[in-house]
């Protein structure tokens, strides 16, 4: 039996890597649904190769263009961001959540409600919704398999049955493109410089997050909720080579790590094949050629976004939701050249100070707080 796969964000970096693996194993996987924002031409190509049953295009103009050019008569074509429910009603074994930002929240919630296995790349959905998604998944028997290379690494080496013996999770961080720059050199950073990651090829938003190290802050929050670990038991270590993808330290002093070349197809294939493994065409790591691996503490002064992520976890309640929303607005404004690189953390900090921090009891609360925080951040930027 082939595994049925639906991808939310099929035209992005994670979506393309997922389809690359499926293409290598057409005997094992079949594509049921694909969802995108506006890149309808790439979607047309994907439809001709993978013949999904249903597609969704958020942008109305792209939807019309896609319909005009599509030749697959049996394909169901939907428009709008609320079409995720219709897609998830198709029989699916695994949903790959690869939309960027909190826009990817509802498909993850929908999959968790239906008890479908989730390959979770969209870290923002966990960050903004606290423990709601993990609780929902648990209640409905939905397994969340992390795609983020760090969390995927931890998932692979985590002895969850011996939780008491876990002394800490060690998240590794490449340090991004500005690891070796002085703070003074950061004020004139352009979007082009910020999205040029030294080790990974990724979408623009996560690339900027890697440059500010907010990405690691979001991953700290993601790990906290996903593995139910207090923030005191999660350490961040800078590891510029991106070979050790993360580790778990146990009470007997053992540290178990997962290693590999920096290629997202490895963690993605792990989630698709779970609990098995499949061979994929990635460059294998040659240990004897590495020579040296380095690890050091992050510079919290140079990367204030990391501090803000820790602070939001300390503030608890809706603070991570506020942090995430403000960061999305700030990064988008930076990419549109409305604010400078060094304004990103200021917008996030000021939004955290200005927003009212409240309990999160429902997905509606998450959406309301996300919306309100975006308004505050936008106002701050406009003023
Ligand atoms: N890239 C990586 O290596 C990597 C690693 C770890 C985790 N992640 C996480 O994976 C997620 C995706 O990252 P990415 O790098 O693949 O991003 P990306 O390249 O920007 O792709 C985003 C995908 O989501 C779609 N999309 C964007 N906004 C949408 C909206 N409002 N509604 C519906 N679809 C929307 C895009 O469609 P269009 O193409 O039509 O715009 C595209 O298919 C992020 O949460 C990121 O943090 C990525």
Percent of residues in β-strands: 15-25%
Number of strands: 11
Mean pLDDT, to the nearest integer, reads 96
Helix/strand-derived class?
A: alpha/beta
Distance between the termini: 57 Å
- Enumerate how many helices there are, as a single number: 17
Helix content: 40-55%
The value of Rg in angstroms is 20 Å
For the structure shown, list the relevant keywords.
383 residues, alpha/beta, Rossmann fold, four-stranded mixed beta sheet, 11 strands, 15% strand, globular, binds NADP nicotinamide-adenine-dinucleotide phosphate
List strands and helices in order, with pairings.
Blueprint: E1 3-8, H1 13-24, E2 29-36, H2 40-50, E3 54-57, H3 60-69, E4 76-79, H4 84-88, E5 94-97, H5 105-113, E6 117-120, H6 123-129, H7 132-140, E7 144-146, H8 149-157, E8 166-173, H9 191-194, H10 204-212, H11 214-226, E9 234-238, E10 244-250, E11 255-259, H12 265-273, H13 287-290, H14 304-315, H15 319-335, H16 343-354, H17 363-382
Parallel strand pairs: 1-2, 1-5, 2-3, 3-4, 5-6, 6-7, 8-9
Antiparallel strand pairs: 8-10, 10-11
The structure holds NADP nicotinamide-adenine-dinucleotide phosphate.
Residues 9-15, 36-39, 58, 81, 98-100, 103, 121-124, 148, 200, 202-203, 205-206, 264 line the site of NADP nicotinamide-adenine-dinucleotide phosphate.
How is this structure best summarized?
The protein is built from 17 helices and eleven strands. The protein has about 375 residues and is an alpha/beta fold.
Structure description:
The structure is a single chain. The protein is an alpha/beta fold and 383 residues long. The chain has a domain at 3-146: 3-Layer(aba) Sandwich (Rossmann fold), CATH 3.40.50.720. It contains 17 helices and eleven strands. The chain has helices at 13-24, 40-50, 60-69, 84-88, 105-113, 123-129, 132-140, 149-157, 191-194, 204-212, 214-226, 265-273, 287-290, 304-315, 319-335, 343-354, 363-382; strands at 3-8, 29-36, 54-57, 76-79, 94-97, 117-120, 144-146, 166-173, 234-238, 244-250, 255-259. The strands form two sheets. It has a seven-stranded parallel sheet, sandwiched between helices. Strands 9-8-10-11 form a four-stranded mixed sheet, with helices on one face. Helix 15 runs antiparallel to helix 16 (343-354). The radius of gyration is 20 Å and the shape is globular. The model has no long low-confidence stretch (mean pLDDT 96). It binds NADP nicotinamide-adenine-dinucleotide phosphate (NAP). Residues 9-15, 36-39, 58, 81, 98-100, 103, 121-124, 148, 200, 202-203, 205-206, 264 line the site of NADP nicotinamide-adenine-dinucleotide phosphate.
């Amino acid at each position: 039996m082939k595994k049925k796969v639906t991808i939310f964000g099929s035209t992005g970096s994670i979506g393309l890597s997922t389809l690359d693996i499926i293409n290598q194993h057409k005997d094992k996987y079949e594509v049921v649904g694909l969802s995108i924002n506006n890149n309808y031409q790439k979607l047309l190509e994907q439809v001709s190769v993978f013949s999904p049953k249903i597609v969704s295009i958020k942008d109305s103009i792209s939807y019309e263009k896609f319909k005009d050019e599509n030749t697959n008569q049996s394909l169901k074509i939907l428009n709008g961001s609320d079409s995720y429910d219709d897609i998830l009603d198709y029989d699916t074994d695994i949903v790959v959540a690869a939309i960027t930002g909190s826009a990817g929240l509802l498909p993850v919630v929908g999959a968790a409600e239906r008890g479908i296995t989730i390959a979770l790349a969209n870290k923002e959905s966990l960050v903004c919704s606290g423990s709601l998604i993990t609780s929902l998944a648990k209640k409905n028997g939905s397994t969340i398999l992390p795609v983020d290379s760090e969390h995927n690494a931890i998932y692979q080496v985590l002895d969850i049955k011996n939780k008491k013996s876990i002394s800490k999770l060690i998240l590794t961080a490449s340090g991004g493109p500005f690891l070796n720059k002085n703070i003074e050199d950061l004020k004139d950073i352009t979007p082009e410089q910020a999205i040029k990651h030294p080790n990974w090829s990724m979408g623009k938003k996560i690339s900027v997050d890697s440059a500010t190290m907010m990405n690691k802050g979001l991953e700290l929050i993601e790990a906290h909720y996903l593995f139910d670990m207090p923030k005191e038991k999660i350490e961040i270590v800078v590891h510029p080579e991106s070979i050790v993808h993360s580790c778990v330290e146990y009470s007997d002093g053992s540290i178990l790590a997962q290693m590999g070349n920096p290629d997202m197809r490895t963690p993605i294939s792990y989630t698709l094949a779970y609990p098995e493994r499949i061979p994929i065409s990635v460059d294998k790591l040659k240990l004897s050629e590495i020579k040296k691996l380095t690890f050091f503490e992050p510079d919290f002064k140079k990367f204030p976004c990391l501090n803000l992520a820790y602070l939001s976890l300390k503030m608890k309640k809706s603070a991570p939701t506020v942090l995430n929303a403000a960061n999305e607005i700030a990064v988008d404004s930076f990419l549109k050249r409305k604010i400078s690189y060094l304004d990103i953390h200021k917008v996030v900090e000021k939004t955290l100070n200005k927003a009212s921090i409240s309990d999160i009891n429902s997905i509606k609360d998450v959406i309301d707080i996300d919306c309100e925080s975006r308004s505050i951040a936008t106002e701050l930027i406009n003023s």
